[in-house]
Design a protein that fits this description.
The chain is mostly beta strands. It has 1 helix and 13 strands. The chain has one helix at 70-75, and strands at 14-23, 26-38, 44-54, 60-63, 77-82, 87-92, 98-105, 110-112, 119-121, 139-142, 149-154, 159-165, 171-177. Strands 5, 6, 7, 8 and 9 form a 5-stranded antiparallel sheet that branches. The protein has a 4-stranded antiparallel sheet with strand order 1-2-3-4.
Length: 193
C-alpha cells in the first residue's frame, strides 16, 4: 500500500464510487459520495461531496458539487469514470442513465465545473446495435485509449455493451455481449468481434 487516505482527509463523507485515470504522465483519482448534514436535532439531509487527488504529486482538494443534478445523482450513484480530462461520467442505479459533467483542472487536480450535468444519455431497454441509445446502464468505464468510447454493464439486460459518444445526448451502440442464464452467449468465432 503506497498511501492510506484517512476518513477525515477525504472530507468525512461516505464514498460511493471512485475513478482513477492517467492523463499525460500523471495519475488522478476522484471519489464521490455523501455526508449527512444535520439541520436540527432530528433532521437533516444527505449532501453530495467529492474528493480529488493527484496521485503523482499528492495534491488534493474537495470539490463543491452539492446542488444542481449532482445531489440526486450521488444519492443513487453506482459507478463513475473520467475521460482524458474533459468529462466525468456517472452511472445511476435508479435511472440507469449515464450523466456527464464537465471537469477542469486547477493545475494539480480535477473537479466538476459546476453541479449541473452537461451530457445525458437516456437508456432504452430495447436499444439495438447500430442505434443511438444505451441499454439500461449500471456501471461505466471510459476506454483508456479513446475518451469517446464507453463500456457499460446492464443489470436489466445481463450484458456488457460498447457505445461511442456522438454528442451531448447521443451515442452509437457498437456492440453487446452476454445474456441471462448459464448457456453459451456466442460461438467461438464471434468472441473477439
Amino acid at each position: 500500500c503506497l498511501d492510506v487516505l484517512d476518513h477525515t482527509e477525504i472530507g468525512s463523507f461516505r464514498p460511493r464510487a471512485m475513478t482513477v485515470r492517467t492523463i499525460g504522465n500523471q495519475d488522478f483519482m476522484m471519489v464521490a459520495g455523501n455526508i449527512w448534514q444535520r439541520t436540527s436535532r432530528r433532521r437533516g439531509y444527505w449532501r453530495a461531496r467529492m474528493y480529488t487527488r493527484n496521485l503523482t504529486t499528492g495534491g488534493s482538494r474537495t470539490c463543491d458539487i452539492d446542488g444542481g443534478h449532482f445531489r440526486p445523482q450521488i444519492a443513487h450513484l453506482w459507478s463513475m469514470s473520467m475521460d482524458d480530462g474533459n468529462f466525468l461520467y456517472m452511472g445511476n442505479i435508479l435511472t440507469r442513465n449515464i450523466e456527464g459533467y464537465a471537469i477542469q483542472s486547477d493545475g494539480n487536480t480535477y473537479c466538476p465545473v459546476d453541479p449541473n450535468r452537461d451530457r445525458h444519455y437516456v437508456h432504452d431497454l430495447n436499444a439495438a446495435v447500430g442505434g443511438t441509445s444505451i441499454l439500461p446502464a449500471v456501471d461505466i468505464e471510459i476506454d483508456p485509449d479513446d475518451g469517446d468510447v464507453m463500456w457499460l454493464t446492464s443489470y436489466a439486460r445481463d450484458n456488457i455493451s460498447k457505445a461511442t459518444i456522438v454528442n451531448d445526448t447521443t451515442v452509437t451502440l457498437n456492440a453487446t455481449k452476454g445474456s441471462w442464464g448459464r448457456g453459451d452467449t456466442t460461438d467461438d468465432s464471434d468472441v473477439n468481434s
